[in-house]
Amino acid sequence: MLAVMAWRNLWRRPVRTGLSLISMVLTTMLLVFMLSFQLGIYDTMKGNALRLLDGFAQIQPPGYLADPDIRKTIAAPGDLAAAARKVPGVTAAAPRASTYVILSNGELSYGGAVIGVDPTAEVQVSRLQATVHHGRYLAASDSDAIVLGDVLARNLKLSLGDRVTLLGSSADGGIAADSLRIVGLFHTGMAEIDRQVAEMPLARFQESFGLGDAANVIALSGPSLGAVQRAQPALTQLAQSQGLVLRDWAALEPALQQGITLDFATALFWYATLVIVVVFIILNTLLMSVLERTREFGMLLALGMRPMQIGRLVWMELLMLSVMGNGIGAGLGAALAAWLQVRGIVFPGFEGALALWGLPPRLYPTLSWTSALSPPAVMVACIALAGTGVFLRLRRLEPVPAMRAA
Amino acid sequence: MKPDTQVSPIVRCRGVTKVYRVGAVDVPALSGIDLDLAPGDFATLAGPSGSGKTTLLNMIGGLDRPTSGTVEIDGQEVTALSSGARAALRLHRIGFVFQAYNLVPVLSALENVALTLQLLGVGPAERAERARVALDEVGIGALADRRPAYLSGGQQQRVAVARALVTRPVIVLADEPTANLDSTNADGLIGLMSDLNRASGTTFLISSHDARVIDRSRRHIEVVDGKVVSDDRR
Ligand SMILES: Nc1ncnc2c1ncn2[C@@H]1O[C@H](COP(=O)(O)OP(=O)(O)O)[C@@H](O)[C@H]1O
Ligand SMILES: [Mg+2]
What is the pLDDT of residue B6? Predict the structure, then answer.
């Protein structure tokens, strides 16, 4: 009967209850949608950044991350890549070698990073080939071939079909040099890549830079970042068995990771503010409804009801209201997010600003259990917790003064 | 005013005083009440407004503690009990009818009556049955499913009487139950309580300054300035 009373009490003031309900529905809906949207954008940012070159994770020699030295090598990269591909959640593994070189054309020279890649494996990990706008990407049969960032090529006054000279140090410490024909120019939109990256066939790299059969890293990819993240324990084990280490996306892109963390922390601050405001409104409404029922509570106490039971009644009202409001809100927010997850959202006129962040013009929220359930759970928990204050206040209620209350 | 020595009383008040502190001022509400109520008494408590009727009923009902003196209900000293024990005593032994705000507005007449039974731990089927019987006894069984807002003042007070009696208390305390009723309804309500008193033997103590109510009583107690000034049996 307490539950029946609680439920009916809610509807004694339908307008007030309705307003409380609406404020919770809207807040939770907004929070679920915003959180989904935000997580979706983070996914896109991570995906775009990692898919371009890094991959979702890499197996590296220890210390290579801090100091990418050509002499820190993986001895049998082909076997390791094959083993990594067998890990569930991993669909591609591309061995790479790289070093810093001077690229030159006659009098002109610029520093840059040249990466030796296995074109067949590489295109499954990196989207770089898709950004080639002049010529073509490297092919499996290539030997005397290189692709250059278009800014680098322009700086060197080189164009398609020209030769570029590389000068660097080989793995054994000697001087390494090579000359390669430019088969393609790429434009990623990321200035530091377009200005200083070049890719050449791995076999030719190994030969020119004295690496033998070795490589420096294995870049990994999968159907999604999440899939590869779930494969991390197995990959870590695999890496460790070879005396190597696994580097996750956050290690590969620390600036991106920090940016996301900072952005998320800022957003959480605003979400928390919103939650606090709404909890305050709900609590205030509850307090009002309790105060105007003081005489009724006094009567119930007089009959022999315990203050605890009245507290439970009021708490039940609060819980019913907040579970209902947040449930509906989460449902609507999730539905909206799910719909836009399929449709995508465009912000007409903001394409340029989005591109600056490395984002495409059409954005997609990512609905997840986290984004759908954490806002309503936090709201209900905060309301229930704050409701204990009213509960404690009710425990001190005495029948005679309560019945005499105006 | 002599205590009844033949039967052990249902209510025994000895030297009951109550002083309310309002700010820095002491307001004496009761100044030494000695009063016994025998089983089956149908007594009215009259007196001008502010004379201490409500306060006395609150003391007897275990709703509040006297400043000094003792109150015993059915041989049990009420004044010594903790507030939890007093709540249990009220629930088990005492029926209340108040002047107003008697009923829970969101519950039907039947549910209002059944509520106290639920607090006593009576199962759903039994409490519905007992509540229905109690409503039949007060003559509004047909209105069992109505909420208080859809009942007249007289009908609401009948529901309150049914609720007071459904737990089979040793005493029913009614504080000006007819104050908000017209004379026909007031007459009807008092007649009902009188009949129930005769039928069940439950002790009633009813505060009122309505002459017609007082006429119906078989014992009439007058309180002035927190003291019993007359106590007539008839
Ligand atoms: N809770 C209280 N606080 C302060 N004064 C009270 C309180 N209850 C009653 N009184 C005072 O005690 C006196 C008796 O009141 P009450 O018992 O309500 O009289 P009655 O019911 O006969 O009208 C009055 O002067 C009243 O103002
Ligand atoms: Mg009074």
Answer: 60
Residue A273 falls within a domain, yes or no?
yes
d(CA B113, CA A74): 83
- Residue B47 Cα to ligand 2 midpoint, Å, equals 10
Positive or negative, the Cα torsion across A15, A19, A20, A26?
positive
Beta-bridged to residue B27, according to DSSP, are B20
How many structural domains compose chain A? 2
Both A270 and A125 in a single domain?
no
Q: Examine the fold and report which residue of A197, A217, A243 is the final residue of a domain before the chain moves on.
A: A243
3-state secondary structure of A114: strand
Do both A10 and A152 map to the same domain?
no
Q: How far apart are CA A251 and CA A237, in angstroms?
A: 18
Check pocket membership of B114 for ligand 1, CB cut-off 6 A.
Answer: no
Alpha-carbon distance of B183 to B213, in angstroms, equals 10
Report the C-alpha gap between A78 and A99 in whole angstroms: 19
Report d(CA B205, CA B60) in Å as an integer: 10
Question: Under a CB-based contact definition with an 8 Å cutoff, are residues A36 and A342 in contact?
Answer: no
- Assigned token pair, A174: 């000697």
Using alpha carbons, select from B195, B183, B198, B185 the residue that is nearest to residue B157. B185
pLDDT tens-digit profile of A344-370?
988 888 887 787 777 788 889 999 999
Render each residue's pLDDT in chain B as its tens digit; 234 residues: 444 456 689 999 999 999 999 889 999 999 999 999 999 999 999 999 999 999 999 999 999 999 999 999 988 999 889 999 999 999 999 999 998 888 999 999 999 999 999 999 999 999 999 999 999 999 999 999 999 999 999 999 999 999 999 999 999 999 999 988 898 899 899 999 999 999 999 999 999 888 888 888 899 999 999 999 999 988
Q: Give, for A133, the enclosing helix (H) or strand (E).
A: strand A132-135
Residues A7 and A120 grouped into a single domain: no
Could you read off the pLDDT of B113-131 as tens digits, one per residue? 999 999 999 999 999 999 9
Can you state the percent helix, strand and coil of chain A, rounding each to 5? 55, 20, 25
Which structure tokens are listed for B36?
């016994």
Q: Is residue B51 lining ligand 1, measured as CB closer than 6 Å? A: yes
Judge if A213 and A116 occupy the same domain. yes
The chain A residue lying nearest B64, using CA atoms, is A400
> Which residue, chain included where needed, has tokens 């309790």?
A290
**Residue A406, pLDDT score:** 63
User: What is the per-residue pLDDT for A387?
Assistant: 87
Instruction: Identify whether residues A232 and A265 lie together within a single domain.
Output: no
**What are the φ/ψ torsions at residue A214 (nearest 5 degrees)?**
-80, 160
d(CA A37, CA A333): 11
Phi/psi region, residue B47 (left: phi>0; alpha: psi -120 to 50; beta: rest), is left
Domain span including residue A168: 62-243
Is there a single domain that holds both residue A81 and residue A183? Answer: yes
Q: Is the CB of A79 inside 8 Å of chain B's CB atoms?
A: no
Q: Alpha helices, DSSP H only, in B21-108?
A: 53-60, 83-93
Q: Are B107 and A8 a contacting pair at CB < 8 A?
A: yes
Residues in contact with A237: Cβ distance below 8 Å, sequence separation at least 6, in sequence order:
none
Asked if A310 has any chain B CB less than 8 Å from its own CB, the reply is no
